[in-house]
Design a protein that fits this description.
Blueprint: E1 2-7, E2 13-18, H1 43-46, H2 52-55, H3 63-73, E3 78-83, E4 90-96, H4 105-116, H5 119-122, E5 126-132
């Protein structure tokens, strides 16, 4: 047996008996009485997120505003915009336009993202896209 003197992070000294070759880990643990206790929040605060205006750093966007931006970029398109959750940040968009003829699906989606601009980074959290050229 060895006698070791340990200094805690707060400067307290303690002497422990240790077996040679093994670290005296028991002395390094914080006693239960000194551990921080978790704060219990009411259920309403624990699982709810902040208002959308502070959550995204900007005001909410409406389906009409999204449709207007897409109509400017694709004037001859059939456009359908649905707010899927009712929180003005999750949307489903269908865009059918001749401008997509010959483009891959990735290029079609990139064109829609470009039309929405910075709103994709700030005001729109999730966007489910369906794009196609008319048959």
């Amino acid at each position: 047996m060895l006698r070791a003197e340990l200094v805690t992070p707060r400067g307290r000294k303690s002497t422990v008996d240790a077996v040679a070759g093994k670290a005296p880990t028991a002395a390094l643990r914080t006693p239960r009485s000194k551990r921080a206790t978790p704060i219990a929040l009411p259920l309403s605060n624990r699982y709810s997120r902040p208002p959308m205006s502070t959550f995204h750093g900007d005001v909410m966007i409406s389906t009409e505003e999204i449709r207007a931006k897409l109509t400017v970029a694709f004037p001859d398109a059939e456009i359908e915009v649905v707010d899927t959750t009712g929180t003005y940040d999750h949307f489903s968009v269908v865009v059918i336009t001749p401008a997509f003829a010959g483009l891959t699906r990735v290029r079609q989606h990139q064109a829609v993202y470009a039309a929405l601009g910075d709103d994709m980074k700030q005001r729109i959290h999730a966007l489910a896209l369906k794009t196609a050229a008319p048959e």
